[in-house]
Amino acid sequence: MNVLEVRDLATHFFTLDGVVRAVDGVSFRLARGETLGIVGESGCGKSVTALSILRLIPPETGRVVGGSVLLEGQDLVKLPESDMRAIRGHRISMIFQEPMTSLNPVLTIGTQIAENVVRHTGVSWSAALDRAREMLELVKIADPRRRLQEYPHQLSGGMRQRTMIAIALSCNPQVLIADEPTTALDVTIQAQILDLMLELKEKLGTAIIMITHDLGVIAETAQRVVVMYAGRKVEEASVDQLFAQPAHPYTRGLMRAIPRLDAEAEVAGRRPRLQEIPGIVPALNQPIAGCAFAPRCPFATGRCRAERPPLIETAAGHSVACWETARVLEAAA
Amino acid sequence: MSEAPSLEVRNLVKHFPIHSGLLQRRTGWVRAVDGVSFAIKRGETLGLVGESGCGKSTVGKTVLKLMEPSSGQILIEGTDVTHLAGGAMWPHRRRIQTVFQDPYSSLNPRLTAGTIVGEPLENFGLAKGSEKEARVAALFERVGLRPDAMNRYTHEFSGGQRQRLGIAKALSVNPDVIVADEPVSALDVSVQAQVLNLMIDLQDEYRLAYLFISHDLAVMRHISHRIAVMYLGRIVELADKRTLFSAPQHPYTEALLAAAPVPDPKRKKAGRVVLKGDVPSPAKPPSGCHFHTRCPYALPVCRQQDPPLIEVAPGHHVACLRRPAGGDPVPLTPTA
Predict the structure, then answer these.
(1) In whole angstroms, what is the distance from residue B99 CA to residue B122 CA?
(2) Which of A23, A180, B223, B321 could bridge A45 with an S-S bond, Cβ 3.0-4.6 Å?
(3) Interface predicted TM-score (ipTM)
(4) Can you tell me whether residue A28 is helix, strand or coil?
(5) pLDDT at res. B1
(6) Strands A207-212 and A175-179, how do they pair?
(7) What is the pLDDT of residues A156-213, one digit of tens each?
(8) What are phi and psi of A184, to 5 degrees?
(9) % of chain B exceeding 70 in pLDDT
(10) How many whole angstroms separate alpha carbon B101 and alpha carbon B91?
(11) Counting Cβ atoms within 10 Å, is residue A245 exposed (0-12), middle (13-18) or buried (19+)?
């Protein structure tokens, strides 16, 4: 049963340099209690997808121009703003990369959690503060009673992100969107936060959309993965399928471009070359006729440059937007 | 005859004063770098890895003499430059160059790319006029930029191209040492691979010594020959990369390696040790071994005694009281 379904989502920004097609026809589903990873490089549209789901695109600059976002069948794109406000932080919550800029520096931690609880459940302030303390315990912040009285600057980066998670989960959302939640954190703290998120997911049954540029984070947290490039979904697979047999040339390129920590092929004294993906991502203010990856793709043909490839299921649960899948997989074998 | 290391630091210390109160009296010291020693040979990369606040960037800034060390020595190609200033430092400045993390804020937006890369040539009186132009054009080509891009401004370049500009600029004066502080952290992985490959090629070509500062263990493993792990101002382990990754001996290195996410879903990290708590403040480092507050193997003695950095095996240095010289690198058992 899907809790969230995104269909053909298109979000455009209207700039002096023309229309930027930040999200260009993206579809995916999120099952109850599932963790879906969305991976891609800067500008691929992964964050804009998240903001579009929550209708947080600043209206002066951009808007959702097409598609639908169904939360248990209800289309959020068409909802009046007042109804949307009742959903954010209640049924869908979001945590961001930089916890310091997402927390209000002049309010205590307790106030910021309780605020959300009162707003969505209408309980009394003291009941909401009780809930806040409970949440701090849940995210394993030591001495929660004292921390409730503290301000964000008194907390470490890891504790701030724990606080963000506490706020996000305070009303038992069905969906938690985490946009690069550990990118600003040190690696030992990152491990703590990822472990905590997975543990809470099990405990509360929240479905998670994990947005990241880091394939390592994807491998450790996600069950299914959507790979995005230039505003489009280019591949979707279970995490095991994706890493065992990546099918899109972009996904394959990404996997070979990352330096490996578990480099078993390392020869003594020699440093192997990383596989480069030549060129850079295309500008999104020009319409892209064919496959957006074609200019950088070693398999590209005339057709790739002219016609946009549809998503085709190559195996159960594994779909790829590529005209040359047969050649790509043959070359890989 | 053995040649002097390209860069050597001996017992480098950098403490920053903390001022507080109405009168801004000095109330303490941040021990950002607390006795660090290492040497880098020609053509070698030493990786300096650690989490925020461990002092790795301060080491970089101090060896570049962008700030004065509190004590200790810095030697470039065997010359002690620790106390050289102004004109006396000038000839040595050319020898040690830097590549910064953020290619967006480290290049002047009002100058053309050619001017930026050519500036050091002029500053050091190495070339001017048409000779400078020709050398800049050659540098552009060497780092993979088209020479006709010399007349463009930096905002017209992508992040990866800007980092190539930064590398060309550092390279322009034929340095011996390049200090690179997180040079690829701001780049996407596909572009990061291009820049890392370029840096490796240039190193092999010019026998450059790199002090490569990063928090990213996978990048480190790729580019470094030897790696020093820092924690709260001190080097806790220093070894060649194979040893460091296959048989780390310091509990902090072990935890750092276990915490790094590996892009392979089949390697589920069952039973990995996740460090508890945060890095303590370098203004109030714990007594004894700085790591004892988070160390799963700490003994009572670790709270009192500073572990010296000792050579436990040839080329492998560890600062841990539980790792004596010549001892077996057996896994430790956690203390309660």
Answers:
(1) 19
(2) A23
(3) 0.85
(4) strand
(5) 46
(6) parallel
(7) 889 999 999 999 999 999 999 999 999 888 999 999 999 999 999 999 999 999 999 9
(8) -85, 0
(9) 97
(10) 25
(11) middle
Residue pairs spanning A and B at CB distance below 8 A: 132
pTM summary value: 0.90
Tokens of A285: 């203010």
Which residues does A209 contact at the CB level (< 8 Å), separation at least 6?
Answer: A4, A30, A35, A36, A38, A50, A53, A175, A176, A177, A178
pLDDT band at A97 (very low <50, low <70, confident <90, very high): confident
| Minimal Cβ distance to A220: which of B221, B255, B261 | B261
pLDDT of residue B267: 76
**pLDDT of the residue at B53:** 86
A191 close to B274: Cβ distance less than 8 angstroms: yes
Chain length of chain A: 333
Surface of B (220-239) touching A: CB under 8 A: 221-223, 225
Residues of chain B contacting A155 with CB distance shorter than 8 Å: none
Q: Which of residues 198-227 of A touch B (CB under 8 A)?
A: 213-220
Over 80: is that where the pLDDT of B191 sits? yes
Contact between residue A295 and residue A314 where contact means Cβ atoms under 8 Å apart: no
Distance from CA of A214 to the nearest CA of B (A): 8
Q: Which of A195, A254, A259 sits opposite B218 (nearest CB)?
A: A259
Residue A194: both structure tokens together: 């990822």
- Mean pLDDT computed over B142-170: 91
| B95-105: average pLDDT | 87
Residues B266-310 have pLDDT tens digits of 876 555 678 888 888 888 899 999 999 999 999 999 999 999 999
Q: What DSSP state is assigned to residue A285?
A: T
Q: Please provide the average confidence, as pLDDT, over all residues in chain B.
A: 91
A186 contacts in chain B (CB < 8 Å): 51-52, 215, 279
Instruction: Say which residue the tokens 């001495």 belong to.
Output: A143
Report CA torsion sign: A139, A144, A149, A152: negative
Chosen for mutation from B44, B49, B190 (greatest number of chain A CBs closer than 10 Å) is: B190
Residues 268-307 of A with CB under 8 A from B: 268-269, 271-278, 280-281
Long-range contacts (CB closer than 8 Å, 24 or more residues apart) made by B240-246: B240/B315, B240/B316, B241/B47, B242/A266, B242/A268, B243/B313, B243/B315, B243/B316, B245/A261, B245/B221
Q: Give the separation between CA B60 and CA B47, rounded to whole angstroms.
A: 11
Distance CA A141, CA A161 (A): 11
- Residue in this structure with the two tokens 């700490």, named with its chain if needed: B298
Question: Any CB–CB contact under 8 A between A263 and chain B?
Answer: yes
Mean pLDDT of B223-235: 96
The β-bridge relationship of strands A74-75 and A62-71 is: antiparallel
Residues of A in contact with B261 (CB under 8 A): 190-191, 194, 214, 216-217, 219-220
pLDDT digits over A143-161, tens only? 999 999 999 999 988 999 9
